[in-house]
């Protein structure tokens, strides 16, 4: 019994160490804010929502490895992802949209297998893509854009 | 008497129907309409010559590009944001501008097509980068995309 408890303790210690190591190597690449229409993104994220949901206010924090500069993890806040329920996962850089094979696209994965695609319009602006890697079209009030609000990159 | 009135109403209704059908459709060939809400930063403010004393929290745009004549009509509604709505106090102020546009094909910093809108009431041209056939993005004179904020981006969305 004692052995089992010790093993369990060691397992949790290892898990915590992994988390700390991961956090330690991550630096903030960018903080992006924006407000988008609600319904289409709710569908993409497999979240059921009523017709009264007309907009979502987002904050996306992207992290990179402090040594290699490679994309690591992200935190997405807003919509149903609040307080303890912040959406977290890994992100990676891909290439290609429906019209431009060279376009830089960020894929934000999640353990529930849903994912989001964002076109890097430039280093300060991200635009949501649909499942077909086509830019999502907003309306007169809201667009599918996120703007860098911290660590803006001078061009 | 009743029958005559009914007949009159029917004739008027059919005439209105015919009239509306003969109106040029907003989405007809050669014409595209884009809408969106953007911040009201200093560049846009000066471009539209919005008086310094007036509050401008954001701008609601409607831009029609008439591609066969390379002309545009632009409506920019701005003012003080009315809380808990997507509108303005007292409907804000509206600027109507029309003019000609040029299409540019720059190579830096991006290769996308750019619409350069020029009008008498514009202090400087409005530059709109075509992200795809449905999305236009405002840019500065160096063709850099304008950076939005937590409330709005500098995007126009095609409606027709």
Topology:
The complex is a heterodimer of chains A (155) and B (160).
Chain A: H1 2-25, E1 26-37, H2 39-44, E2 55-65, E3 71-77, E4 87-95, E5 104-108, E6 116-122, E7 125-129, E8 145-150
Antiparallel strand pairs in A: 1-2, 1-8, 2-3, 3-4, 4-5, 5-6, 6-7, 7-8
Chain B: H1 2-22, E1 31-39, H2 42-47, E2 58-66, E3 71-79, E4 93-104, E5 114-118, E6 126-132, E7 135-139, E8 155-158
Antiparallel strand pairs in B: 1-2, 1-8, 2-3, 3-4, 4-5, 5-6, 6-7, 7-8
Describe this structure in words.
The complex is a heterodimer of chains A (155) and B (160). By secondary structure, chain A is α+β, with helices and mostly antiparallel strands. Chain A has one domain: Lipocalin, CATH 2.40.128. Chain A contains two helices and eight strands; from the N terminus they run H-E-H-E-E-E-E-E-E-E. An eight-stranded antiparallel beta barrel of chain A has the order 1-2-3-4-5-6-7-8. In chain A, strand 2 (55-65) and strand 3 (71-77) form a beta hairpin. The longest helix of chain A is centred in the N-terminal third of the chain and has 24 residues, at 2-25. Chain A is globular, with a radius of gyration of 18 Å. Chain B is α+β, with helices and mostly antiparallel strands. Chain B has a single domain (29-158), classed as Lipocalin, CATH 2.40.128. Chain B is 17% helix and 38% strand. An eight-stranded antiparallel β-barrel of chain B has the order 1-2-3-4-5-6-7-8. In chain B, a hairpin with a 2-residue loop joins strand 6 (126-132) and strand 7. The longest helix of chain B has 21 residues, at 2-22. Chain B is globular. Chain B starts with a helix and ends with a strand. Chains A and B meet through strand 1, strand 6 and strand 8 of A and strand 1 and strand 8 of B.
Using brief descriptors, characterize the structure shown.
A: 155 residues, alpha+beta, Lipocalin, eight-stranded antiparallel barrel, 2 helices, B: 160 residues, eight-stranded antiparallel beta barrel
């Amino acid at each position: 019994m004692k052995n089992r408890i010790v093993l369990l303790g060691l397992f949790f210690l290892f898990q915590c160490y992994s988390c700390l190591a991961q956090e330690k190597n991550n630096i903030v690449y960018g903080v992006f804010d924006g407000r988008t229409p609600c319904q289409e993104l709710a569908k993409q994220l497999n979240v059921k929502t009523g017709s009264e949901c007309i907009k979502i206010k987002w904050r996306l924090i992207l992290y990179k490895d402090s040594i290699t500069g490679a994309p690591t993890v992200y935190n997405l806040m807003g919509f149903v992802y609040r307080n303890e329920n912040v959406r977290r996962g890994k992100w990676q850089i891909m290439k290609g949209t429906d019209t431009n094979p060279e376009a830089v696209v960020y894929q934000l994965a999640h353990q529930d297998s849903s994912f989001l695609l964002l076109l890097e319009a430039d280093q300060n602006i991200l635009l949501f893509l649909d499942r077909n890697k086509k830019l999502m079209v907003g309306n007169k009030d809201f667009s599918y854009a996120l703007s860098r609000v911290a660590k803006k990159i001078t061009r | 008497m009743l029958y005559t009135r009914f007949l009159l109403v029917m004739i008027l209704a059919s005439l209105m129907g015919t009239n509306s059908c003969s109106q040029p459709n907003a989405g007809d060939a050669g014409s595209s309409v884009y809408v969106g809400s953007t911040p009201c930063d200093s560049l846009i403010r000066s471009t539209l010559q919005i008086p310094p004393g007036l509050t401008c929290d954001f701008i609601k745009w409607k831009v029609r590009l008439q591609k066969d004549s390379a002309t545009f009509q632009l409506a920019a509604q701005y003012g003080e944001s009315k809380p808990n709505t997507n509108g303005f106090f007292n409907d804000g102020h509206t600027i109507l501008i029309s003019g000609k546009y040029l299409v540019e094909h720059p190579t830096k910093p991006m290769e996308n097509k750019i619409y350069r809108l020029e009008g008498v009431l514009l202090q400087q041209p409005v530059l709109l980068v075509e992200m795809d056939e449905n999305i236009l993005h405002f840019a500065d004179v160096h063709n850099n995309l304008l950076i939005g904020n937590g409330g709005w981006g500098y995007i126009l969305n095609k409606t027709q």
